[in-house]
Amino acid sequence: MAAAVTVAALSVLEDEKLAENAERLGEIFRERMRAIQQKTTLIETVRGKGLLNAIVIATDEESPLAWQICLKLKERGLLCKQTHGNKIRFAPPLVITESQIHEACDLIEEVILGIKS
């Protein structure tokens, strides 16, 4: 039974091209984050692979700023995770759409640019 479930899950990954979609949408996300980075000194680094991405906030690891950004994003309906003090990790589901990626990036941009750097 477990083998059948595994085969079915792999078929969905393949049939719906979820890996290819994750790579494409992840690149869109990183491009959008780099564009925001050009508008503010708050984003130090943009990094990621596929849909697993992070931005590094230009503060020391003890600063509460990354956490405060996460809370503001949560208030707007976007969940993310602050890690290692000044990093914010984004890990949307594999089934996210391109329009949802842009919507998330719009929210991130509004919150980040709304903070005085």
UniProtKB/TrEMBL annotation:
Q: Which cofactors, if any, are listed as required? A: pyridoxal 5'-phosphate
Question: Which taxonomic lineage is given here?
Answer: Bacteria, Pseudomonadati, Bacteroidota, Cytophagia, Cytophagales
Quote the InterPro entries the UniProt record gives.
Aminotrans_3 (IPR005814), Class-III_PLP-dep_AT (IPR050103), PyrdxlP-dep_Trfase (IPR015424), PyrdxlP-dep_Trfase_small (IPR015422)
Quote the protein name from its UniProt record.
Acetylornithine/succinyldiaminopimelate/putresci ne aminotransferase
Q: GO molecular function of the protein, one example?
A: pyridoxal phosphate binding
One GO BP annotation of this record: L-arginine catabolic process to L-glutamate
CC per GO annotation: cytoplasm
Question: Which UniProt keywords are given for this protein, alphabetically ordered?
Answer: Aminotransferase, Transferase
